[in-house]
Amino acid sequence: GRTNVIKLLLKRQDVDVNRRTPNGRTALHFAARLVNMDAATLLAQADGVNVEARNNIGMTPLALAVAQSEVKSVAYLIDDLKFDIHTRDDKGRSLTLIAAAHSGIHMLKELLNRGFDVNDKDSEGKTPLVHYAE
Length: 134
Prior knowledge:
Blueprint: H1 2-11, H2 27-33, H3 37-44, H4 61-67, H5 71-79, H6 95-102, H7 105-113, H8 128-133
Helix pairs in contact: 1-3, 2-3, 2-4, 4-5, 4-6, 6-7
């Protein structure tokens, strides 16, 4: 299936694993957002890959998965692929704040259960509680 195609493409010397779409997403952004863990693993381990690539609003693949409320994908990216949990987007939002701004309760609970800071602030001084109260 798709995994075999990704393997084939990644074997090519001329493949650009960090190639971006017009909105700044890489293949890894899509794999993380769509909970395609086989693809995410292959892409994250590819030579020259930038696992911290940011889309046009400053979100890494992990941050995008948080924004899409993909709990399984986020757990996999953090636990298995060891993605940077201290990433912030262009608005200075941590993963907890991205969850508060874009996701449901399940994603926020997942992050808080992992010890993420409930009182973290973005560049405007907003906490997760403020985001939910807005």
